[in-house]
Design goal:
Layout lengths: L5 H5 L21 E3 L1 H7 L2 E6 L9 H14 L4 E5 L3 H13 L2 E7 L5 H9 L3 E5 L3 H14 L3 E2 L5 H7 L1 H10 L5 E5 L4 H13 L5 E7 L4 H4 L21 H10 L3 E5 L1 H12 L11 H11 L9 E6 L7 H7 L10 H8 L2
Parallel strand pairs: 2-10, 3-4, 3-6, 4-5, 7-8, 7-10, 8-9
Antiparallel strand pairs: 1-2
Helix pairs in contact: 3-4, 3-7, 4-5, 7-9, 8-9, 9-11, 12-13
The structure holds ligand F0G.
Length: 344
């Protein structure tokens, strides 16, 4: 039978109410890509779980199929979220599919072009907040407490249910859980979901390396960050809603949460692209953390199976690339000019 999406495939493992009415874009089922060159360098067996290949280009679709399916089944007509961009695009797409109104609040000027375009294309009402993601999140929490609008941020437990499927897929593909799982941490829904998923699926438990951007690293610093700043705008978050659970996941798994600099994030984005895997900056954080730990001898790689979750596609944030690279050369439309330039 052809693939029918995550609720169809893993619904029996997801705690969704009986009224849930499946809304799917055939999300999930993303590839676990072997990385032979990096594996050889690190002395481990490294795989990328490429979540950029979901229908709207990020892992958010896993949670959104569950959250929107529940909301529709309960009769919600409008959904809302705060977002650094990917949640907005995903909520907009699934709401469109379900025939719901969607409203998304984003931090003014801090959302990558591909995400904003997606949210608009799928028909969301996009509102820019003169403040941070954290400010936007407080606003959507308040409005959903006082009105019938449904909240689809990862505070919504059904988002977590859906996102557990990332862990299930990895276990199914590998036969058991890897030794390490590395992933970026922003609002901390994904790390919470993966840990819950691995615990539930009972195919072994990985150690978890959660990675924040140095300018937005409340879980590393141990206190909220009032003015988070990082080039990885997806994880530009100072007060993660599920911060406690993220710390618990790191602790219980015998792993840790660390921070990497924007420079480390950008250089790792290039390393991944050089392997044919183009991810947005935030999505490079997991591997950046692993490389940083390995460089200082804090990662015992030998013989280990390591999965790095790359959460969003590079096409989400094209300007990062075009701004940091020289623009393509221009020549006349002549063979001689081409040969001259190519140097053959
Ligand atoms: N990577 C990407 C590409 C993201 O968009 C996000 C979060 C994360 C990692 C971190 O995941 O929040 O579960 O810890 N993006 C949210 C959004 C905040 O609004 O799209 P998290």
């Amino acid at each position: 039978m052809t693939y029918q999406g995550l609720i169809h495939r893993y619904g029996q493992y997801l705690d969704l109410p009986a009224h849930t009415k499946t809304i799917s874009l055939l999300e999930g089922n993303t590839p676990l890509i072997p990385m032979p060159r990096l594996s050889a360098e690190l002395g481990c067996e490294l795989f990328i779980k490429f979540e950029g290949l979901n229908p709207t280009g990020s892992f958010k679709d896993r949670g959104m199929t569950a959250a929107i399916s529940e909301a529709v089944g309960r009769g919600a007509q409008t959904v809302i979220c705060a977002s650094t961009g990917n949640t907005a695009a995903s909520a907009a797409a699934y709401a469109a599919r379900a025939g719901l109104r969607s409203i998304v609040l984003i931090p003014e000027g801090k959302v990558a072009a591909g995400k904003l375009a997606g949210a608009i294309a799928y028909g969301a009402e996009v509102i820019q907040i003169q403040g941070s993601f954290d400010d936007a999140l407080s606003l959507v929490v308040e409005i959903t407490q006082k009105t019938p609008i449904a909240l689809v941020n990862s505070i919504n437990p059904f988002r977590i249910e859906g996102q557990k499927t990332g862990a299930f897929e990895i276990c199914d593909d590998m036969g058991s859980a890897p030794d390490w799982l590395c992933l970026p941490v922003g609002n901390a829904g994904n790390i919470t979901s993966y840990w819950a998923g691995f615990k539930q699926y009972q195919k072994g438990l990985p150690q978890i390396l959660g990675v924040q951007a140095a300018g937005a690293a409340p879980l590393v610093l141990g206190h909220p960050v009032e003015k988070p700043e990082t080039i990885a705008t997806a994880i530009r978050i100072g007060k993660p809603a599920r911060g406690e659970e993220a710390l618990e996941a790191a602790h219980e798994s015998n792993g840790r949460i660390i921070a990497v600099s924007d420079e480390q994030i950008l250089s790792t984005q290039k390393i991944l692209a050089a392997e044919g895997v183009w991810v947005e900056p935030a999505s490079a954080a997991g591997l950046a953390g692993l490389l940083a730990e390995s460089a200082v001898g804090k990662f015992e790689a030998k013989g280990k199976r390591v999965v790095v979750v790359c959460t969003g596609h590079g096409m989400k944030d094209p300007s990062i690339i075009t701004e940091s690279f020289k623009s393509p050369k221009i020549i006349p439309a002549s063979y001689d000019a081409l040969v001259d330039l190519v140097g053959v």
